[in-house]
Amino acid sequence: MAEVGEVLMSVLSTIRVPKPGDRVHKDECALSFSSPESEGGLYVCMNTFLGFGSQYVDRYHARTGQRAYLHITRIRKAKEDDNSSGSGHPPKKKPTRLAIGIEGGFDVEQELYEEDVKVVILPDRQEVTSEDLATMPDVVRERVRSCVSSADSVSHALQVQQWDGEVRQESRHAADLKQLDNGVKIPPSGWRCEVCDLQENIWMNLVDGKLLCGRRYFDGSGGNNHALLHFRETGYPIAVKLGTITPDGADVYSYDEDDMVLDSKLPEHLAHFGINMMTMEKTERTMTELEIAVNQRVGEWEVIQESGTTLRPMFGAGLTGMKNLGNSCYLNSVMQVLFTVPDFQNKSVPSSTHTVFVYHRAKLGYGLLSGEYSKPAPDPADENGASEPRGDQIGIAPRMFKALVGRGHAEFSTNRQQDAQEFLLHFINMVERNCRSGSNPSEAFRFLVEERIVCQQSQKAKYTQRVDYIVQLPVPMDQATNTGVLERNEAERRREEGDSSAPTVRAQIPFTACMAALSEPEILTDFWSSAVQSKTTATKTTRFASFPDHLVIQIKKFTFGLDWVPKKLDVSIDVPDTLDLSALRATGQQPGEELLPEVAPPPLMTPDVEVKGILGFHGNEEDDSLYSPLLSPVLDDSTVSQLCEMGFPLEACRKAVYYTGNTGIDAAMNWIMSHMDDPDFAAPLVLPGCSSGPGTTPTESLSEEHLATIVSMGFSRDQATKALRATSNVLERAVDWIFSHLDDLESMDVSEGGRSAAESEGGRDPPPPGPRVKDGAGKYELFAFVSHMGTSTMCGHYVCHIKKDQQWVIFNDQKVCASEKPPKDLGYLYFYRRVAE
Questions:
Q1: Which helix H or strand E contains 163, and what residues bound it?
Q2: Cα separation of 723 and 598, whole Å?
């Protein structure tokens, strides 16, 4: 065997030093889910920086000829006995600090490892020791050590997320705050809101000394927002919470900076209004203590995670846990459920013709379904292996998959918590875009919705259909069956100041009430009827035009209050194990029923605006053809601005004001809420008779940039042209259109002039075929649900329960156990499959 030095010198030219843009895949095998903790460790190619498990590295070497690898192994250290309560149980130490991974804060599971990195030369797997490197030339030592240091740059405490919510910055207003000399002096106790007479959660504005109540919390408690409203009226930015003032400090909030802040001159600012900070005592919970109490939500966390009971760990095929990569529980829960669906299981065999996305989806499917990684995690403290298996597994850590599905997305590319429903739709969209040919597993969830709008004045109807993947069920809080208990519990909660140890009482909403809220006719006011050519009242009824093989139901727990403050509805819903939606099947146009004419509303013109056509842009006074009543409508800019500030698309806001005749914010808001699901909701406003309507955009006016973007996605220029012409040259709509008309595009015969044969004969496009959907009986059975714990989708934790061979199983990241009491009433997303008749 040749000397190590000679071998290393022979491969030196293939060893690259990682550049700032290079990613060294030192945590996951490119072909499997092997990692440095796996048996045999991980081999990282020192040229491509791809990682390979011990069972694949020889194959990669044979195909590429690459010989130099970093061999990384990690061994988990034994944890010291920290008096923890075991798997699935909340920590016994009550958090005293609003922080994660910091002493006194919320606990995180923190695995510590011993890591070893060596250079190995294939095919003989010769190891290059530090002594061998010492005898090498400087250039050799520097190149090898640069690679080693890059691979060893991560902390041995993997994926530890630390966050301290009590770190506050000095307010920019504190140093030179101008306080009014208005003679106001504040007593040391007995404070009341000067507007509503509330006696708790009182804040004093440090500019004028006004005593006002704080914000209303997501659950309706707290104050009435009078301190915030005062800031909006006066611009006075800083307030202090009375009742939290002690010689050590107080809660200070800057409305202008929208955050809790520090005020280094607080004693001076308080003394201005007669408050001696050194004699004050704390009489109310601080904002930190309130947030800790809210985030603990012991009742919800314990019930959903089935804490307090000894859960039996489960291992085997289809029972593989997924490591939490830092707030990735939303991804873990959704993917566990999706790979229970046969359509996704059948597509879990990668092919050389597939895209990178399809390959990684198949790789994830194999990792979850094979059972290869569903083994008990080794316990470093149990050297003889005599103890019972723990709940957590070796599992898989889908780092490459998470990076791929989140690439380019403003939210899913981060380590922040996300909405599981939004991720499900994002993933389905990626599946749609990567299944141009062959079977599409997302068709298992695709269905058609029919909306029937009936003008109450003419009794004529309008039918529209749209594609959807999720049924969103509203939560009618007024239908709670335990209203009396809720009122008594609210009174007790106020008396006890929100004692978190008190039992949680939730509103109990019948599932039938949720379905009734979905299916009952919706009253549309200010509906513009083409039959009577004016605004009138109409009813909108929503029904299923097709029933999918698998039905997803979202409980709309996350909503907005009257003050647009996000809140989560803490409700219990008796979701059934079986579901029959046959009565909600759409029937289409009824015999003898007349349809509303396809006529758009007339353009809006204010009385003081003279119609001048488009003269001055393209023509002259003698050219009457250039006069047109179809000018851009005069819209109320203030109403449009208000709607845009709420987060709605500009074009949707313009259409809302246009179709409601400039009648104000309320009418426009109602229009938006009733048209949010329209396919062209955010499309540009197209006036009736305008030549730039859908399907009539001339080829020569199409954006070359838009054409190039669609062509770069793998479509032909003719196909891109057809999509843009069908969607008024709007890129986002064109992309959605092209993916929903793949069958039509695959068979289209477009001439060199950019027009199809059908267009040449008929003068315009034939109606595009509808999307491909599966249909069948509307009877379903529940097989999985995803639950959320926490106060909003941007925080908290997700788990899922899946029915496997008549046994409910809880998937809580790496922990997979038999479920004893599946909390079906507290779910967020429910998954049903069709019952075979």
A1: strand 163-164
A2: 23
- Cβ proximity of 815 and 87 under 8 Å: yes
Q: If pLDDT is split at 50, 70 and 90, which confidence band does 498 have?
A: very low
> Residue 290 CB: number of other CB atoms within 10 A?
19
Closest of 542, 564, 325 to residue 447, by C-alpha: 542
pLDDT tens digits, residue range 143-162?
777 776 665 433 333 343 44
Catalytic residue chosen out of the listed positions 29, 45, 147, 329: 329
Closest CA to 827 of 495, 567, 577: 577
Buried b (16+ CB within 10 A) or exposed e, 20-53: eeeebbbbbbbbbbbbbbbeebbbbbbbbbbbbb
Amino acid at 414: T
CB-based contacts of 589, cutoff 8 Å, min separation 6: 461, 463, 595
- Annotated binding-site ranges for substrate: 203, 215-218, 253, 255, 258
Q: Enumerate residues 6+ apart whose C-beta is below 8 A from 781.
A: 577, 578, 579, 832, 833, 835
Q: 823 is written with which tokens?
A: 């909390």
pLDDT at residue number 676: 77
Q: Give me 523's structure tokens.
A: 């009253």
The pLDDT of residue 633 is above 60: no
Q: Which residue has the tokens 């156990």?
A: 817
- Ranges assigned E (strand) in 435-557: 447-455, 461-468, 471-473, 507-509, 522-529, 534-544, 550-555
Number of H helices, E strands in the chain: 23, 29
| Residue 9: HSE in the Cβ half-sphere, 13 Å Cα cutoff | 10
> Quick check: 340 and 348 in contact, CB under 8 A?
no
Closest residue by Cα to residue 783 from 318, 372, 472:
318
Q: How far is CA 434 from CA 338, 361, 411, 770, in A?
A: 17, 11, 21, 19
| Catalytic annotation, pick one of 71, 272, 360, 797 | 797
Nearest to 374 by CA among 328, 330, 319: 319
Strand order in 211-213's β-sheet?
169-170, 259-262, 252-254, 238-241, 202-205, 211-213
φ/ψ (deg, to 5) at 353: -90, -5
Phi, psi at residue 692, to the nearest 5°?
Answer: -100, 25
List Cα–Cα distances, 551 to 48, 779, 820, in angstroms: 43, 10, 25
Q: Which helix (H) or strand (E) covers residue 706, if one does?
A: helix 704-711
Confirm whether 329 is a catalytic residue.
yes
**Which whole-number Å values give the CA distances from 42 to 52, 145, 154, 368, in the listed order?**
6, 18, 15, 20
- How sure is the predictor about 12, in pLDDT bands with cuts at 50, 70 and 90? confident
**Dist. CA 825–CA 804, nearest whole Å:** 19
Q: Which amino acid is at 566?
A: P
Q: In whole angstroms, what is the distance from residue 57 CA to residue 37 CA? A: 16
Distance CA 204, CA 240 (A): 5
Which residues, in sequence order, are bridge partners of residue 534? 529
Residue (of 721, 725, 732) closest to 696 by Cα position: 725
| Cβ pair 801, 822 in contact under 8 A | yes
Q: Residue 517: how many CB atoms within 10 A of its CB? A: 17
**Do 245 and 280 form a contact (C-beta atoms < 8 A)?**
yes
310-324, 630-644, 676-690, 738-752: least confidently modelled range:
738-752
- Decide the pairing of beta strands 447-455 and 534-544: antiparallel
Residue 622 has pLDDT above 70, yes or no: no
For residue 797, the SS3 value is strand
Chain segment 499-555, per-residue pLDDT in tens: 444 556 788 999 999 999 988 999 988 788 888 888 889 999 999 999 999 999 999
| Per-chain mean pLDDT for the chain | 77
Q: Measure the CA–CA gap between 20 and 25, rounded to whole angstroms.
A: 14
343 phi and psi, to 5 degrees? -60, -35
CB 837 within 8 Å of CB 826: no
